[in-house]
Known about the structure:
- Keywords: ATP-binding, Folate biosynthesis, Kinase, Lyase, Nucleotide-binding, Transferase.
- InterPro entries: Dihydroneopterin_aldolase, FolB_dom, GTP-CH-I_C/QueF, Hppk, Hppk_sf.
- GO terms for molecular function: 2-amino-4-hydroxy-6-hydroxymethyldihydropteridine diphosphokinase activity.
- By secondary structure, the protein is α+β, with helices and mostly antiparallel strands.
- It has 2 domains: 16-241, GTP cyclohydrolase I, C-terminal domain/NADPH-dependent 7-cyano-7-deazaguanine reductase, N-terminal domain (GTP Cyclohydrolase I, domain 2); 248-465 and 493-695, Alpha-Beta Plaits (2-Layer Sandwich).
- 18% of the residues lie in helices and 12% in strands.
- The strands form 4 sheets. Strands 5, 6, 7, 8, 9 and 14 form a 6-stranded antiparallel β-sheet that branches.
- It is elongated, with a radius of gyration of 31 Å.
- Bound molecules: adenosine-5'-triphosphate and 2-amino-6-hydroxymethyl-7,8-dihydro-3H-pteridin-4-one.
- The site of 2-amino-6-hydroxymethyl-7,8-dihydro-3H-pteridin-4-one (PH2) has 12 residues, from strand 8.
- Residues 321, 335, 338-339, 345, 347-348, 360-363, 365, 367, 693-694 line the site of adenosine-5'-triphosphate.
Amino acid sequence: MTFAEAVTGPHGRPLDRICLEGVSATGHHGVLPHERVEGQVFRADVVLHLDTRAAATSDDLAATVSYADVAQDVHDVLAGSPADLVETVAERIAAVVLDRPAVHAVDVRVHKPQAPIEVPFDDVSIVIRRDREHAPVVATPAVSGAEPRTASEVAGDQRAEASPSLGLAGAAAAEPSYGPAVVAPTMADALADEPVGAEPFGAESFGAEAFGAEAFGTEPAGAAEAPETAEPAEADVAPYLDPLDAAPARPIGAVLALGANLGDAQVTLRDAVTDIDRVPGIQVTDVSPLARTAAVGGPDQPDFLNAVLIVKTTLSPRDLLRAVQQVEELHGRVREERWGPRTLDVDIVQYDTLTTTSDDLELPHPRAHERAFVLVPWAEVAPDAVLGGLGGGPVSQLAVTAPDRAGIRWLALDWLTGPTQSTGQVATDGGPAPSAPVQSVSVERAPAVAPDARSSEPETPQAPPTPPHGYASEAPQGYAPEGPRDYAPEAPRAYSPQPSQGYAPEAPQGYAPEGPRDYAPEAPQGYAPETPRAYVPEVSTSSTPQAPLVPIFEVPSAPQPPAPPVTATPHAPVPPAPSTSQVPAEPPASSYELPLPYDPPAQQPAYEPAPQAYQPPAEPSYEVPDQPQAYQPPAMPAPPEQQVYPAFGEPARDDAYAVWGPPAPADPFGTSAQHPTAAHPEVPEAGYDPTERDR
Ligand SMILES: Nc1ncnc2c1ncn2[C@@H]1O[C@H](COP(=O)(O)OP(=O)(O)OP(=O)(O)O)[C@@H](O)[C@H]1O
Ligand SMILES: Nc1nc2c(c(=O)[nH]1)N=C(CO)CN2
């Protein structure tokens, strides 16, 4: 059938049609968290197939169907209880329209012109036809307009209409009412013989999953398409769902920032990449180059090594936070001082397009937009990335104006598989590390891990993920959740994504498997500042003496498809890692040539930096006040004698590692000629309690 094509009536002739086009409302339907939170426009076209001759004869509205009432009902469904799928929305509209006995059949088209589709498109819509025989499979939604009618009433009316000579109208009227309307997907005649409430044809009957109701994992059990036995007014109220607890039905993109400046930082970061990739529900799809960066804020401390991971995840934002905090903990993270030195820091920079603030989690990360140590590696691995939220914008643009950009010492591409550097033992006293001169260079897009490097280490079970570059939503680079992982076959995933497998079932670890969820949200968080645990990499190239291996999980030592079940191994707290930093002071040998000079990554979106309205505070401060404009990079006072953006200094390089960044402004923080490492412009506010945010 085509949309609105005539339907043959009981007398063998085409029925008349009432056509209603373009009823629109903001609805919260969709599988992605932001669709649920923000809502978008939905539009519906509806064609009612009925016989209008009686109305025409009597000229009486009561003898037909009021299109105004139908329009109201359609609007209410569009704006009502969120569903995952437009299919469900269309089905609900069909049900509410067919609740009118005069209507023999209905065609429904639901448009979703703002659907999250990554290529240019005009509209996407679903078209369905439902009638008395091929009836809607959802309960009739409670809407403001029509009185809900029982299925018996509907069926009785139909039979009376179709076969008045049988006198069934009276019989139908004599039937008991079974409560709110439920329309069965079987013939109307069959309905009259059974109590409609006894065998409802709600989503359960057809498998809720098939309709996506449970797939999103957000609707409480029974709320999806169960017959609406509650009061209609209440039934239509969508349950409140904190978007931070909403697990997406399909993997969404997220960005994680890693940093470390205690212990063998490169080894830690490497292992952290592997650990994160092994978490059920997280897949690392891309890994940035490694950046050595001057510490920003906090006390005098060694340089950091920083990297950014692009991941796909099916975890809710909070579960993702718990997971990465667990990995921090595995690596001996101790929170003593805000912005203090740490063995490992993992921040969620961005989670899909979610923008939200709560006590425990803010998305996007509130300081990401002003941190070159995040933006520079991110821009290298995802040149077209855009940071959302306040102060957000094209990452590559934010990177070249970030206040700490001059503190980016160098970038290394092969850090996942290349030799780790422990020659640059620096500053065990917390003093700044000697740094390579900061120059202007570029990092050419190249795989994070050389294919030869990968194949040269096939047997290494700890080999970190070596994903293909270019995570993006475009199809060619896209994520194929069901397909085989196309990278690092030599690095088997130790954890099967089967729902029954928990991440770290033992209680202190904080994650107890609970049904299909990998993480028990209510479980205590694993972080325990009073019992720091040193992380001991299972495979380490570090020359630093390590504490005995204390595995958290038994990890298969060779590829074993399918992945074996995870076995939790009890482990006791072990002494903290030595507080020495092995952040290499000089660029280590690299197998990648990094061309000079620096050019902003190709394919940048056209973007003009907004006028620089921000005036730096008189006191050195790393905090840049949030500015309400989206896509406005944090303003930087231009260095007095140089144009730092977009023209960078002379090409210069001295070895295979790149020294990244524009020439250091003479006084990037407007305070003195100090190098930012020494200046430590990120000063916590007075009275800062380091435990305050670390619940
Ligand atoms: N996007 C986010 N990513 C990670 N943690 C966050 C985020 N938003 C809020 N938090 C909260 O911040 C708390 C402190 O995190 P953490 O100790 O990593 O801070 P930090 O790294 O010292 O400082 P910063 O937040 O400036 O990077 C965490 O316990 C977490 O609850
Ligand atoms: N260079 C650098 N500086 C920092 C970093 C970091 O990862 N790198 N992390 C901080 C708090 O998250 C504070 N300062």
